[in-house]
Recover the amino acids of this structure.
């Protein structure tokens, strides 16, 4: 039985989700309260598909477009949907209102998944009649290029809903991970934050420039991390695996852990100095062009991975 | 004027450095006190070169081999060397002895760079007659695939020595970064350690499996980090750059920073559980094969980057 997907919110993330569902062969209906956003959606999606075609990442853009419907009426948009991906504003009160509206028109068995990058779903679904079908499915932007999705149930979410969501994500070529309990920032942003906090401290204390910190990752750490995780990396970096590695390097990493001082690494003075170095490297007017460069590099990388993947 | 390089220590790292120098056209002499290690060195280097040729990363393996000399006599090995890369054991006393021997036969102006991954060079060069030409040039393994080199002067190192080392690394197609003052773990391992410490805490506390932590990086964070650093990443992830990003996400990352508990993330119980999950994923007898897979993936990635690099 084909899953019917609905996407609420036709911004950047909502449009990207529509591509992900439709690329995998699912019919998807895209809704937004903002008629202008909705009017622009198909054109913007078409342009993203053209980029994907150029890099060999989509073969049948017309087929993908044919499976995407836009709909300005919430009830009609959600009729027959088995799975709903909410992409509203990152604001608890706004989400509470949106979920109440959604629940008033949607089937009680439709899974309601939020794209939120930071708010635990229990905070905006606890007031619903059927909160057991709610959870987070947090994508990385843009999900049609970066496959990771963090699936985060609330204490009320049933196992069946978690399992169906994990299966659906795998079926549409995303890579779901299960975050077993709600935790601030989920997993991806906590890992990113830990590295950024250390990077900013080293920068603040004058050990290294911003450009050299970036080089350390892009010409060093990040190469292996683009095809194997940090735990597999250390497992392969000591003759007898992770326990052996922990014996060799654990004390060093523990020292680093204990050396962190109490000051906020995100202090305004640090950010001002970082901004000065970044703007030397890339003037503000170059940001948009560099974002386009990033997206092309990412597409080229994914095309490379599709050609070489064997895990 | 051609730089003449010498490499002391014919283990994995020493042999890899010999490839890096010779691939860039420099004559290099490889020394080891262990005659057996030296006898095996040329064959092992030849096999590494064959792998590189297969992935289009070396074009003239005979030329590379012709520039590599092995030499069992330290004085003859170092005669005429402008730059020496020390690849001895990771042990302060052993390095102290090695540096005393080196200084007794080498020109006073030869740069002495250590491959140490964790020991500040001031700890094993302070006793020398000419400590001002000593510093760390820490590679990532293997340096012929991963270009980052951390250049770390001691308080005694002259600016001219730092500059010549940075220039030499750039000339041989490595990417040097300058670590302005000695710091435990340098930069790369401090960043890696910060991420690992957070990953192990999330794993220990049952939020996520080891496999899902790895997926979070390899199918999420690590993709962009393979071609842009973490600071450039956040600079492009908010409409007005890093200060804007800090305003939006700094408080989240600060909370994560403050949530770390006092317990050692590398506790034996945590590593034992991690080992159990890793061995389910990859039995111990599969480690060597997986290491060979990793090296092939890395070569394929570097071939991809050489074809697409435009920064």
């Amino acid at each position: 039985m084909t899953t019917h997907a609905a996407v609420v919110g036709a911004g950047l993330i909502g449009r990207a989700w529509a591509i992900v569902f439709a690329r995998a062969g699912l019919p998807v209906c895209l809704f937004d309260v903002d008629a202008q956003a909705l009017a622009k959606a198909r054109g913007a999606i078409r342009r993203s598909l053209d980029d994907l075609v150029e890099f060999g990442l989509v073969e049948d853009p017309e087929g993908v477009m044919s499976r995407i419907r836009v709909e300005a009426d919430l009830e009609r948009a959600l009729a027959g949907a088995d799975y709903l991906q909410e992409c509203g504003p990152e604001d608890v009160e706004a989400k509470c209102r949106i979920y109440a509206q959604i629940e008033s028109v949607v089937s009680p068995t439709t899974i309601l998944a939020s794209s939120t990058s930071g708010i635990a779903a229990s905070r905006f679904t606890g007031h619903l009649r059927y909160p057991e079908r709610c959870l987070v499915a947090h994508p990385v932007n843009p999900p049609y290029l970066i496959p990771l999705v963090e699936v985060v149930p609330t204490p009320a979410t049933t196992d069946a809903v978690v399992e169906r969501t994990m299966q659906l994500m795998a079926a549409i070529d995303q890579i779901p991970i299960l975050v077993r309990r709600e935790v601030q920032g989920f997993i991806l942003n906590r890992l990113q934050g830990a590295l950024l906090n250390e990077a900013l401290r080293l920068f603040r204390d004058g050990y290294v420039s911003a450009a050299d910190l970036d080089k350390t990752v892009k010409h060093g750490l990040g190469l292996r991390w683009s095809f194997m995780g940090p735990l597999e990396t250390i497992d392969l970096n000591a003759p007898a695996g992770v326990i052996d590695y922990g014996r060799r390097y654990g004390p060093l990493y523990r020292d680093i852990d204990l050396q962190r001082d109490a000051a906020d690494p995100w202090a305004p003075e640090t950010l001002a100095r970082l901004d000065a170095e970044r703007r030397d490297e890339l003037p503000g007017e170059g940001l948009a062009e560099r974002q386009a460069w990033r997206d092309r590099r990412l597409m080229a990388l994914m095309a490379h991975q599709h050609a070489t993947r064997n895990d």
Q: What stands out?
A: Residues 188-308 of chain A form a domain with the N-(1-d-carboxylethyl)-l-norvaline Dehydrogenase; domain 2 fold (CATH 1.10.1040.10). Chain A touches chain B through 103 residues (CB under 8 Å). Strands of chain A lie at 5-8, 28-31, 68-71, 83-86, 111-114, 134-139, 148-153, 175-178.
